[in-house]
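Hey all, sorry for the wall of text incoming. These are the two entities for the joint prediction.
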Amino acid sequence: MKIENSIETFNSLVKRRGFIWGPSPEIYGGFAGFYSYGPAGMALKNNILELFRQECRYFGFGEVECPTIMPSIVWEASGHLERFIDPVMRCNKCNTLYRADKFLQENLPDLMIDGLSFEEMEKLINKHELTCPKCGNNFQKIEEYNLMLKTSVGNNVTAYLRPETATTTYLLFNRLDQDARRQYPIKIYQFGKAYRNEISPRQGVLRMRSFDQFELQMFISREQEMEFVDYEEVKLNKLPLLDWKMQEKGIDKTNLISLDKAIKDKILKKPAYAFCLYVAHYLIKVLSIPEELIRFRQHSLNERAHYADDAWDLEIKTRQFGWIEICGIHDRTDYDLRRHAEYSKQNFEISMGADPNIKEVPQVLEIAFGIDRIIYTLLETTFNVEEGRIILKLNPNLAPNTVAVFPLVRNKENIRKFALKIHRELLENRIGSFYDAAGSIGKRYRRQDELGTKWCITIDYESLDDNCITLRDRDSMEQIRINISNLSEIIKKKQRE
RNA sequence: GCGCUCGUAGUAUAGUGGUAAUAUGCUGGCUUCCCAAGUCAGCGUCCCGGGUUCAAUUCCCGGCGGGCGCACCA
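and here's what came out:
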């Protein structure tokens, strides 16, 4: 295989080194929109999650986990049943699929199409004798295309696989309210699978039908939204913002401004929401994604989801797919809790301040990450080819292996034994060590470069006498000799740097 | 979903109406070997189903999957 700095080299690396495989199940030809993680990919994912969980704790978020399947009523209340089902119609002859409502709106711009029933839309088609623009034939009956995956539970009870984790978190609201002893804002996150029945999934793991979300929620009062303690501490941080007014003018360069200024200039409405942007940015920065590849882009009005009052995407620039959404920050207002209160006949009006008589339904601010997209962008943005050497310049804390241990030669038993001993000691100190004795020493270095392993430890003849090993750095390829007595400590110290 | 195009070892590709190749990879041996060395031995492939044919990985049809364009993307 040719080694060049190309996207083809990158794509084959992802497979070769066991990061991502698919579409799964590969042995049966694959199922579009479903992928698997290999050992390296899963190690990377777990390291990301570990870091995220740590940081969430730092920001005061607690974790919950909910079922991935919920009965219809939940999605009726959340609005997904209404909004995730599109009216579609196909041509009798060429089978081309159209969104019925969009098609009608385009052809009959003076009429109000929104909110019409299927029958009413069909009547309009007949009345105006609309036919397939491609081949001129008539349409079949309007059918529904459901973006949610439907299933049945028990004795034929219709249920849906969740299209987001957020809604399932909101269902716990009254529990969380008690659990948090009404200390608002309540900060909660959930990690887990969500499912979307994409019509035609493309771009590999960027648009899967089964994917992982990591969604943070803040239940907060209207007053706190405007006067938020946490915000005060971070408001001088500058973020690369691209609001929709700029986009309308055709500007695609971001404006690096402080949250404070964004609030003053009314680019952002609420300090608590601004804080959410900060958290999203912080979590991405923790992964060592380069600053210049990150931007926040505000949604235009018609881009927003049904529940959102304001929405910004944290986007990362990729080589293969351009700017892609990694995280959506949504001001969901009290929409979800109000709807669930209504449908479940619960009272979600609670007191959040000092005065127990002032009650309101909390506002919800959401930071929603797509974990698989993070993994893809991390791999792609850290991928480097230098003089025929493939290197993943991953943050050392994220790399599947923290260190790799090699005997310089493998046909000398005492060297091999020494190397294995060091490998075991590292493991005992809970350092992710990987042992490899196969192939030349150079080849073993290259293998680890491809996995993003930051440090390689080599045991040679001298080691037997002086108890020193060679520590080789992934990026500089520099080697230093260090004594084995405090090796684990040195690695741990390097990890913290 | 529509159109175009593609599908050959783990990866990247060549090729063919008579079941296949190159590179790399992988396994084992030799080599005191610090950045993909050499050497010997070995491993592994024609997406699935149907049709045409004496014979199909190759041609035809269908399916599945990938890429691109359109549509879709709450």
